[in-house]
Amino acid sequence: xxxxxxxxxxxxxxxxxxxxxxxxxxxxxxxxxxxxxxxxxxxxxxxxxxxxxxxxxxxxxxxxxxxxxxxxxxxxxxxxxxxxxxxxxxxxxxxxxxxxxxxxxxxxxxxxxxxxxxxxxxxxxxxxxxxxxxxxxxxxxxxxxxxxxxxxxxxxxxxxxxxxxxxxxxxxxxxxxxxxxxxxxxxxxxxxxxxxxxxxxxxxxxxxxxxxxxxxxxxxxxxxxxxxxxxxxxxxxxxxxxxxxxxxxxxxxxxxxxxxxxxxxxxxxxxxxxxxxxxxxxxxxxxxxxxxxxxxxxxxxxxxxxxxxxxxxxxxxxxxxxxxxxxxxxxxxxxxxxxxxxxxxxxxxxxxxxxxxxxxxxxxxxxxxxxxx
Length: 373
Hints:
The structure is a single chain. The protein is α+β, with helices and mostly antiparallel strands. It has one domain (about 1-370). The chain contains 9 helices and 6 strands, in the order ααββααααββααββα. It has helices at about 1-85, 100-155, 180-185, 200-220, 225-230, 235-245, 280-290, 300-310, 360-370, and strands spanning about 160-170, 175, 255, 270-275, 315-325, 340-345. The strands form 2 sheets. The chain has a 4-stranded antiparallel sheet, covered by helices on one side. The radius of gyration is 34 Å and the shape is rod-shaped. The two termini are about 50 Å apart. The relative contact order is 0.17.
């Protein structure tokens, strides 16, 4: 019974060591995968936030130019009101429109021109600053994402992580065509909760602003009734004014590059981690196996396979992407605050997120098959 008890105890101890080894290995594996998942997600999240900031900068540029457009449309409104007043000026039979017409042309229009030029200069300064900020964000985001990913993996998950790194591409942005600027100013209603405009009818808001700008000048000339007569033409003047100054906005807003598609390699961010040798549980587990086998020889094929797996398990990888969450046309990707971040299955080769040259496709595919997600 004693001999039988010794053998049974050995088996029980072996089972306990086996369970302990499995628990330690699972904990280690989850910790390593959590590290790279966190690093990858943090990197793509910074990209997504940067894209949303660029959207806000585009909106700011469009907003200030919309004010400048309204100011120039106000000039045309005053000139149209002067024309309506001139129709009532027919000396010596009718003099009611003569003085308002003369006042509008000699006083109101020049003052409105000065006001419009001032607003245009302000809009150009804002656009220059916004463009500089967008370029700086596009350049700094990649560095910030790589740094944030490395900091999270290497510092917050140590042990078992020894080193961590992230890898992302430059933001796929280009300067937008100036002809698109007026389309955005006149047809962009803004994200819900950000800009309060009639749905798909911002032209009415800009036209109303033009009327509000022109009204004080017309009032000073006692020509408010003539301004009201031509108020409906403000939509036409807004279109003309916008296309007259659209060159000022050329290259001041950003768009996604034309040859880039959502889910492509430009939107992918990958993270990698290497474990500390002393934090890996495999050596301790091997010693337990030798203890339970009474010091038996554990070398051979199984040992070489175990060593290979141990080497592979020292590294972890994860992938994430930032993307536009919506059904809008690609021209609106930089005009909506819909940029998000998500984890993806790790891939180096094949598919739309390929990051490998063609001649290394087989190597990348082999690596993908070894990565545990």
